[in-house]
User: What shape does this take?
Amino acid sequence: MHLSRLEVRNFRNLAAQVLEFPPGGVALLGENAQGKSNLLEAIYYLETLRSFRGAREDHLVAFGKSFFRVEGEVQGEEGEGAVVAVAFDRALRKKRLTLGGREPQRLGDGLGTLGAVVFAPSDVGLVSDGPGVRRRFLDLVLSLNRPGYLQALQAYRQILGQRNAALRMTGGGASVEAWDSGLVRAGARVVLERFRWVERWGERYSRYFFRISGGEAGRIRYHSSFPLAGAVSEEEVAEGFSAALGGTRHREARLGSTLVGPHRDDLVLTVEEGERERELRDYGSGGQKRTAALALRLVEAATIREARQREPVVLLDDVFAELDAARSERVLALMEEEEAGQVILSAPKESDIRLRRHTLVRWRIRAGRVET
Amino acid sequence: MSAMERLVQEFSRLPGVGPKTAVRMVFHLLKRPPEEALRLARALEDLTRKIHPCRECGNFTEDELCSVCGDPSRDRGLLCVVEEAFDVGAIERAGRYRGVYHVLGGRLSPLDGIGPEQLGVERLLARVVGGGIREVILATNASVEGEATAVFLEGLLRPLGPRVTRLARGIPVGSDLEYVDGSTIAEALEGRREM
Ligand SMILES: [Zn+2]
Assistant: This one.
């Protein structure tokens, strides 16, 4: 699968244009603020229906315009294709998605058409920022790759919001507990999926970390707000969650919010130093944090490869700019081995093109217009 | 605001009507003979003047009792609890149910400020305490709010004695009864289970 065509209108500073992408990918060269990242953002928008830079939709609409539209065509090995298009109307504050010209029943059905992963300098936030960022990472990866996860997550968030409102309304009792069974059911699914993902990919993550760092032992662990020890089935996780809810009734009534559940969990990233295991978030060096972020993205790519049985489209947003020379060499070598699919990378100048230097087609971008 | 703008605004408040449709409706009315618009106005006036909740169950009616409560052949020992009056219509259309109803007028949704009090749960409990009810079927929607409402009511009703059941799974998760076809509703009623 690869992105074969992209059409953008009124998206940030990008000129209205239609671009035909080669199956192997392209290197996008351009000075700062010419629109390199915006183009990658538009491509990845088709995958997740949101900006990977965390921008709100009305900020994606070009200045003075009322809407933006992005359309992409994805092509498989046997020539089979899919066309996905998203439009956002600023006045109506509405997103409209079509798949092959038809509107799917739910917006969520249009997620993950492209099968892409994006590497960006801001990824270091995955390691250095608060737990919410890592939960969002897990939620995105699992929503895109595990059937049913997004529905469970949406149900969980809805019930959590209602339960917290009930806590503030009444402080506890039957009208709060009425939400518990739904909360536990949806929450157990979410926790179990996240936990299993970490189990499945933990070793791989450590291998990537070891390679990129040049020999350090990095680990990843799912930290649940209630004990998960030995819980392997959804029922067992649900039991643990239920018991934990029961144990926090007094405190949650006082604080007016639900204190246990997947919305309080974290993905803990550590590195071994001598005898000690240290949390990267607090004690990691800049290089270690960037290494962990890269390893997470590589695992994300591997997840796509396994879940969808095809090579992910890899988007690299000037990603080696802030990495030291030795680490970039090692991650490049790793990527040359691992990533066999389409690569779309952005770089300020020719000498910054480090991946597939000899094969990638060069495009230039200036003032939002791509010259192919 | 002009008279036209006012009506556009009123129409766009209706479910399923966007601003564009509202404008089309207003222009349509202006093009037709004035009697048509006046007929609509009178129908709306009649609606607010004549229709009110049934004294017994909360269903909409022009009389004191709705057509279900006023029907002596209905089984008064069987009580079906629904969120909205239009859910009564959906179940009636399925044509299988012979009991009576209780319309809550909503569902628990603390985010919208709707708790047990706002739902008039007391009224429901009073009916059940009143006696003669063998079974309460909780037919709230298959949404997270509908489920929580059912769980909450079950907790209050069970100690009062009747069997408490919930519609069978057949209803797609997240869907309102309103949009479910008659045979699916009939099956869900048939296969209702103890909570
Ligand atoms: Zn009635």
